[in-house]
Amino acid sequence: MKNRLLLAVMAILCMSLLSFGCAKKQVAGPDKDNWEEQERERLARERELREKLGRVAGELGTMIHFDFDRYDLKPEARQTLTRKAEILKQYPEIKLVIEGHCDQRGTAEYNLALGERRARAAADYLVNLGVPTAKLSIVSYGKERPLDPANNEAAWAKNRRDEFKPSY
């Protein structure tokens, strides 16, 4: 009898403890509202950056060209780069990838090195005009991505270039 009574008391005690339990964690309304507000602000900033990029992408995307086996900047290339520098300083959020390209003549290794020197020449010019180095990156494609695959001087002249890819 004593064991049954003890067992009954223990059962009642366990049931009462289970009924109290831990309180459920409530998701506070202000945290949820704060997160939604932050997301709205992030999306608004991203939309603004896309709009800015859209306004200047054409000018930032303008290519410059080089003479055969050269990586020095022509006067018209310097003018184009000067305008790019003004835009990049006006819009600090915009970054620029500079791609160096060559025509199909020469070895792949030689053209990769030449493409890098061409991209580096443009980047150095922009940095000298006050564009932060952190906003620029360079890549060389050598002769791997010709604009015009023909094998004549007109096609080769098109392929000796730097292309510019803006982003944010």
UniProtKB/TrEMBL annotation:
Q: Taking the first listed entry, what is the main subcellular location of this protein, grouped into a coarse class?
A: membrane
Where are the annotated segments for Disordered?
Answer: 148-168
Q: Where is the OmpA-like domain?
A: 53-168
Key words, A-Z: Cell cycle, Cell division, Cell outer membrane, Lipoprotein, Membrane, Palmitate, Signal
Q: Does the keyword Lipoprotein apply?
A: yes
Its Gene Ontology biological processes? cell division
Q: Which SUPFAM superfamilies match?
A: OmpA-like
In its UniProt entry, what is this protein called? Peptidoglycan-associated lipoprotein
- This protein's species is Fundidesulfovibrio magnetotacticus
